[in-house]
């Protein structure tokens, strides 16, 4: 449904650095013009944001940011190659599979594109100083990356997206789950079967709200550490004074 898609895009926008707690949202009329939909559709999208606890309506004033999603409050977002380069480590990528394919329903849903729309699928193993660290399956819309090549995947996707395509990566939504390596994973990672691995799903989006890349990664837990800096929102921060906004 279109209002859900608009709500998702607004959610990403609210979690960007452009909005602070207490910042006003544009009015319904402005958002309706931006998205090319009826004001009722915008109202339903904002209703979802209210239901998620991200915004609050003030009668006669407008709608304001109440909080942000905690998974967007990490200190920064950097690619694996960028992080390990900073540590002086050599990173290599071996691409095992690279092809264009129609998007299956589950992937189309993640990337907010049509089912069977053309996407790139790639599978690569990332090595750090010659040792397998991660297996990554990646899905990217062809319409956004017409010139993606094997050479790009052997390097840094972040570099390709931002430096060559001129697209600003605004954030990343991740989900982490512990798993045990099956026979195929163990073979790719050069590990014993049933070795504990960290399964990470990652959805990257641009500053304009487009979904750029969906990845499923398996990382060696004995060699990979995840550090998060999460900012606590105190109750007195939720509804600070904000200027009035009219015109909804």
General description of the model:
This protein is α+β, with helices and mostly antiparallel strands. The chain is 27% helix and 30% strand. The chain has helices at 2-14, 28-35, 39-51, 80-86, 105-111, 150-153, 157-164, 183-189; strands at 55-58, 62-65, 91-102, 118-128, 131-141, 169-180, 196-206, 211-220. The strands form 2 sheets. Strands 3-4-5-8-7-6 form a 6-stranded antiparallel sheet.
Which descriptor suits the 3D outline? Answer: elongated
Average pLDDT over all residues: 82
Derived structural class? alpha+beta
Task: Compute the number of strand runs.
Answer: 8
One letter per element, helices H and strands E, the order comes to HHHEEHEHEEHHEHEE
Q: Count the DSSP helices.
A: 8
Q: Helical percent range?
A: 25-40%
End-to-end Cα distance, whole Å, is 23 Å
What fraction strand?
25-35%
Strand order of the largest sheet: 3-4-5-8-7-6
Which radius of gyration do the C-alpha atoms yield? 20 Å
Largest sheet: 6 strands, antiparallel
| Quaternary structure state of the chains depicted | single chain
Instruction: Catalogue the unreliable spans.
Output: 70-77, 237-248
């Amino acid at each position: 449904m279109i209002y859900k898609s608009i709500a998702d895009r607004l959610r990403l926008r609210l979690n960007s650095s452009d909005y602070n707690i207490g910042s006003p949202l544009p009015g319904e009329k402005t958002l309706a013009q931006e998205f090319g939909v009826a004001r009722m559709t915008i109202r339903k999208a904002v209703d979802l944001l209210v239901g998620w606890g991200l915004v609050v309506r003030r009668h006669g004033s407008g709608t304001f940011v109440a909080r942000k999603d905690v998974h967007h409050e990490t200190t920064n977002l950097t690619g694996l190659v960028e992080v390990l380069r900073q540590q002086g480590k050599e990173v290599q990528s071996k691409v095992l599979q690279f092809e264009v394919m129609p998007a299956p329903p589950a992937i189309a849903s993640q990337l907010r594109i049509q089912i069977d729309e053309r996407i790139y699928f790639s599978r690569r193993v990332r090595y750090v100083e010659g040792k397998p660290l991660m297996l990554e399956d990646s899905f990217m819309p062809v319409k956004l990356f017409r010139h993606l090549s094997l050479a790009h995947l052997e390097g840094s996707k972040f570099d390709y997206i931002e430096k060559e395509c001129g697209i600003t990566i605004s954030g990343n939504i991740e989900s982490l789950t512990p798993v045990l390596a099956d026979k195929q994973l163990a073979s790719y990672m050069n590990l014993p079967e049933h070795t504990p691995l960290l399964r990470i799903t990652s959805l990257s989006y641009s500053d304009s709200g487009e979904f750029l890349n969906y990845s499923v990664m398996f990382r060696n837990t004995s060699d990979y550490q995840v550090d998060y800096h999460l900012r606590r929102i105190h109750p007195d921060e939720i509804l600070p004074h904000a200027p009035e906004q009219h015109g909804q």
